[in-house]
Design a protein that fits this description.
InterPro entries: CoA-transferase_III (IPR050509), CoA-Trfase_fam_III (IPR003673), CoA-Trfase_III_dom3_sf (IPR044855), CoA-Trfase_III_dom_1_sf (IPR023606). By secondary structure, this protein is α/β, with parallel strands linked by helices. The protein has helices spanning 27-37, 78-89, 102-105, 110-116, 141-148, 167-192, 202-209, 211-218, 256-265, 272-277, 284-295, 300-307, 320-325, 327-332, 368-374, 379-386, and strands spanning 18-22, 41-46, 69-72, 93-96, 121-126, 196-201, 238-242, 248-252, 314-316, 335-338, 341-344. The chain has 16 helices and eleven strands.
Length: 395
């Protein structure tokens, strides 16, 4: 893996790693953001029109694009394609999130890129994967997690599954696993001098996230019915409860010491039903109703004052805005203000190479001329590479 301390990029453990990102939507930009957050120099190849189709955000609020430099290129033009290949020559990683075969048709597929740069890690992010009966089909997060078994277990027993935003598929099973695979392949390339293709599929990644459920199912501790299991809200001691003011409290008192402390503070320590109900599933539905009646009797702050400072595994269910203001998150700097927009800080934390706060998302094409000059293109070549029917922003 080629590394250079002279390459641009913020501080972090990936400083010196150069990534070429062919701009897309959702999971691939999230994976690239993770690499940029940790110090990689990520060059985003944007579309000349500025935004990928389907992106509802203007560039100032497209936080998944933070920390990048951007060049806007029409990849259907030979001069633009050649410019990308010149970028590939000096890169460690290329990331793309198109349907299978798209980059091959553009002349930017893995065979072409790896022939030019044998050390390159070529990261591919798709929903269904690079092969299989559904590989060429359109789809979105909800479809991928449905097929992987990640949607059905979430929700109430007598209702439909509840959509977990796009956190489980696009980001957890998609972009996060893409970034992990890219870093693993980078380590291998540094050892062997040989790059490879990383085939990251949201279906595969979501299935991986359900590994513990398969283990529970194999030993007979999981049934395929919502709100019937330890971690799906079936257990009264692992559930969300509404309080008198309409706010919610999360309770996760799984271990016996936490469960008994919870019962003690709620005045239920000597209740035989609750004592038996920690291990006997037959009691769970009734005890869930009893606890619901307890928590609905007082506002959330009452319960936080009673339980919040104890080992009862209780925490408030906060909105996005409330989470930003919580004292614990403020103390750790979990959220940062970047150019007036509050957003999650880079994670995880490092003792030696702590990443700096990310830079705002770039205007598409903002750094185009500088990037192309940096790889040795002449002014004439830069003009040809940036040319489009509607030139747009070119830096």
């Amino acid at each position: 893996m080629s590394r250079s301390a002279d390459r641009p990029g913020p501080a972090g453990p990936l400083r010196g790693v150069r990534v070429i990102e062919l701009a897309g939507l959702g999971p691939a930009p999230f994976g690239a953001m993770l690499l940029a957050d940790l110090g990689a120099d990520v060059i985003r190849v944007d579309r000349p029109e500025g935004r990928a189709a389907g992106n509802p955000l203007d560039h100032r609020h497209d936080l998944l694009a933070r920390g990048r430099r951007s060049v806007a290129l029409d990849l259907k033009r030979p001069a633009a394609r050649d410019a990308v290949l010149r970028l590939v020559d000096g890169a460690d990683v290329l990331i793309e999130g198109f349907r299978p075969g798209v980059t091959e048709r553009l002349g930017l597929g893995p065979d072409v890129c790896l022939e030019r740069n044998p050390r390159l890690v070529y990261g591919r992010m798709t929903g269904w994967g690079q092969h299989g009966p559904l590989a060429s089909r359109a789809g979105h997060d909800i479809n991928y997690i449905a097929l992987a078994g990640g949607l059905d277990p979430i929700g109430h027993r007598n209702g439909p599954p509840v959509i977990p935003l796009n956190l489980v598929g696009d980001f957890g099973g998609g972009g996060m696993l893409l970034a992990f695979g890219v870093v693993a392949a980078l380590l291998r390339a540094r050892e062997t001098g040989k790059g490879q293709v990383v085939d990251a599929s949201i279906v595969d990644g979501t299935a991986l996230l359900t590994t513990i459920l398969h283990g529970l199912r194999a030993q007979g501790s999981w049934v395929d019915r919502r709100e019937s299991n330890l971690l799906d809200g079936g257990a009264h001691f692992y559930a969300v409860y509404e309080c008198a003011d309409g706010k919610y409290l999360s309770v996760g008192a799984i271990e016996p010491q936490f469960y008994h402390r919870l019962l003690d503070l709620l005045g239920l320590a000597d209740d035989p039903e609750f004592l038996a109900g920690h291990t006997d599933r037959a009691h769970w539905p009734k005890l869930r109703k009893r606890l619901a009646d307890v928590f609905i009797s007082r506002p959330r702050q009452y319960w936080l004052d009673l339980l919040g400072g104890t080992d009862t595994c209780v925490a408030p269910v906060l909105s996005i805005g409330e989470a930003v203001q919580h004292p614990h998150n403020r103390a750790r700097g979990t959220f940062v203000d970047v150019a007036g927009i509050v957003q999650p800080a880079p994670a995880p934390r490092f003792s030696e190479d702590q990443p700096t706060a990310p830079q705002p998302p770039p205007r598409p094409g903002e750094h185009g001329r500088a990037i192309l000059a940096e790889i040795g293109l002449t002014e004439e070549e830069i003009e040809r590479a940036l040319a489009t029917g509607d030139r747009g922003a070119s830096g």
